[in-house]
Amino acid sequence: MAKKDYSNWTKEELIRELEKFKKQKKYGIVWEDKPEQVALLCKEKLPVLTEEKDKEIITDEEKPMNILIEGDNYHALSVLNYTHKGKIDVIYIDPPYNTGNDDFMYNDKIIDKEDSYRHSKWLSFMEKRLRLARNLLSNKGVFFISIDNNELAQLKLLCDEIFREENLIGIFVWRKKAGAGADSKLLFSQHEYILFYSKEIRNLDRFFEPLNEKQKAEYKNPDNDQRGLWAPTDLTAPSSDTDDSRLYEIISPSGKRWLRRWSYTKENMEKLIEQNLVWFGKDGNGMPKRKRFLSEKQGLVPRSLIDFVLTSDGKKDFENIFGSNNRLFEYPKPKILIKHLIRIPSKKDSIILDFFAGSGTTGHAVLELNKEDGGNRKFILCTNNENNICTDVCYPRIEKVIKGYTNLKDEKVEGLGGNLKYFKTDFVDAEPTDENKKKLVDKSTEMLCLKEDCFDFVLEGNHFKIFKNNEDKYLGIIYDDDGIEPFKKEAKKLKKKFVVYVFSLDESAREKKFEDVTDLVELKPKI
Questions:
Q1: CA of 337: how far to CAs of 175, 308, 311, 371, 404, in Å?
Q2: Considering Cα of 152, then 153, then 154, then 159, what sign does the dihedral take?
Q3: How far apart are CA 449 and CA 476, in angstroms?
């Protein structure tokens, strides 16, 4: 390529050329961005949520509220960027793999292998959603993304750009099949991948997988130590260690002498022996071992190879709920796989998001984890209703898992309990007219309840409503200036701390009107 001659360029032309260079990527992935109708719609209309009250499930008012959103996930993520920005702890998604086999649609058109812009359309689709999703993660939040060979390379580079390469924690390899199949010609593919990113890797604590039953069985208590079960670990130093200060003799209770380089100094070893933390065998004549107690074991550092669950396990999960003849959903992810991933980084009160929810496996996994460890994790599931996937599969699955169902063996499966709110995406014209602002006010009550996690209705007064949750948090929504004084009167009666939102058609402040209740009211930004 011939070099450009800048000698006759004007100053303005040179500045424009310099700006072009600044925008060029030094490294990364480049594709032709393709317009997407659902994203373009957001330039004309504001996405909001509308609750479907008849689909609400409440089994225990003391348990947290889970959320299912029916609608395009771009619109759902746009709303969640208002209600949950910086609040999500774990995101897992299983997006379309773009195999060219009717698994990916763009602008309501199936993308096949012959589409020369197949990869560009997929990247355009994913990039918009991943950027919205990253905003939702907390400072310690993490992101799991399932994928196969079709888009692995492209997705890795895209995620490196959005999350930054240094925030990649690792890539899991999931061995999903056991034997060969009809699709194996030159090579039988047995695995998929799960990319694992963090919002900010420097903020993360260490991750541990809990011990399984086989690993726990290694812990015994042959000397009836009051501290409980323990496992013996080696006390000798690595062969590469030449530190002579660790070369000394240990004498066992039976009088046997052991001369080695040890992993502890002599002084520290003597302390361990004094504290009964060194085991010489039942006869007191064995090689000294360090006692590690099960109660002290946090778990195992996660392994990148996942080889204990197969795709067929996901099908069994699904058939147990819907029956073996049901063809509503062909390839659900195994519940055990999602539980394994969520368990690694999540705390018992984490919020988990899946915006490609499909059959609802992530919701099922969260409910089961809570049952197992007494947790109060909450899930947010988002899915469109293509082929009635939300109304006929995802929602019924969550309902059955919460309330209970009869499995393939005609056995009653006890419900896991829990609560669910069902929302659908909706729209308000974006033009900032008074009429549109009024429509937005009418649509915003559910979104504010979602934002503040306060769904229990307390009372409605003139131009205001009050809600609460099971943690004694109170929410006040004041729809215009006429509602301020009546609301304050009720707030003083209740003597509770309130988060308060005030709607107004102008931009004037309202703080002065709440000066007499500053001990009760936390004003949030006006809408």
A1: 11, 9, 9, 17, 22
A2: positive
A3: 10
Q: Do residue 174 and residue 322 come from a single domain?
A: yes
Strand order in the sheet with 289-293: 230-234, 289-293, 278-279
Residue 320: which residues within 8 A CB-CB, separation 6 or more? 407, 408, 413
Q: Are residues 459 and 497 in the same domain?
A: yes
pTM of the model: 0.85
| Type of residue numbered 295 | S
| 311-322 and 395-403 helices, crossing angle to 10° | 70
Domain count, the chain: 3
Which tokens in the block code for residue 317? 């999960």
Pairing of strands 464-468, 456-461: antiparallel
Long-range contacts of 432-439 (CB under 8 A, 24+ apart): 434/505, 437/505
Nearest 10 degrees: Cα torsion 299, 302, 305, 306: 60
Place of tokens 């009107």: 513
Rounded Cα distance, 231 and 221, in Å: 8
Q: Identify whether residues 94 and 188 lie together within a single domain.
A: yes
pLDDT mean across residues, the chain: 91
Q: Is 425 exposed, middle or buried (0-12, 13-18, 19+ CB in 10 A)?
A: buried
Residue 396 buriedness (CB in 10 A; 0-12 / 13-18 / 19+): middle
Residue that terminates a domain, selected from 380, 399, 423 = 423
End position of a domain, from candidates 268, 296, 324: 296
* 3-state helix/strand/coil string of 67-85: EEEECCHHHHHHHHHHHCC
In the block, which residue shows the tokens 């996930």? 73
pLDDT tens digits, residue range 337-347? 999 999 999 99
Q: Give per-residue pLDDT as tens, 373-415.
A: 999 999 999 999 999 999 999 999 999 999 999 998 899 999 9
